[in-house]
Design brief:
With about 180 residues, this protein is mainly alpha-helical. Helices cover about 85% and strands about 0% of the residues. The longest helix is centred in the last third of the chain and has 48 residues.
């Protein structure tokens, strides 16, 4: 009787965990779609801003690649039949977990680069307001606007990147824990 109860409890917890992961995978796909729909800003004459754009783009590529891998692994896990579709191994999930940890470094670098880009953009904006030649001032204002567009891009992307990284970590950790405990 105790074994039957424990088996039922284990099945119930696996079903609950699977439902949570199903929802989390769906939310992950939505965040990735938002990231991919952000308009990448134009390059500017400010190296700090261009570096920031590049770092955010690199982080976006890393996060979206890991999310796609996670979604593919999860689908394989759900549809594995042992012959045509093989479930991902524990080692594959662990490798993905390591890749997700690397995202943190890129996101942190994007934040740091964003601070430098912000300083450079403000300096350019201040410089543009002090130019007396109307043609040069217009060109400088346009350049400052491009720099501000890049900062706004980062302001939209970085929170999504962080949120997706945390969600990936939770999903992958949950699956690794389940696989490690034999559930």
């Amino acid at each position: 009787m105790k074994k039957v109860f424990m088996l039922a409890l284990a099945l119930l917890s696996m079903t609950f965990a699977s439902a949570q992961n199903d929802e989390a995978i769906k939310e992950s796909a939505e965040r990735v779609a938002k990231l991919l729909n952000l308009e990448v800003p134009k390059q500017t004459k400010l190296e700090a801003v261009n570096t920031f754009i590049a770092t955010v783009n690199d982080a976006t590529k890393q996060v979206t690649t890991n999310s796609q891998t996670m979604q593919d692994y999860y689908t394989r896990m759900q549809t594995a039949d042992g012959t045509n579709v093989l479930a991902p191994s524990l080692e594959e999930w662990q490798t993905l977990a390591s890749n997700i940890k690397e995202e943190k470094n890129l996101i942190e670098k994007a934040k740091t680069d964003g601070e430098e880009a912000g300083k450079a953009a403000v300096a350019l904006k201040d410089e543009a307001t002090n130019i007396s030649n109307p043609l040069k001032a217009a060109k400088a204002v346009k350049e400052a606007k491009n720099a501000m567009d890049a900062l706004n891009y980062g302001k939209q992307a970085i929170p999504l990147l962080g949120e997706e990284m945390v969600a990936q970590g939770k999903i992958v950790t949950s699956i690794i824990t389940s696989m490690s405990s034999g559930q």
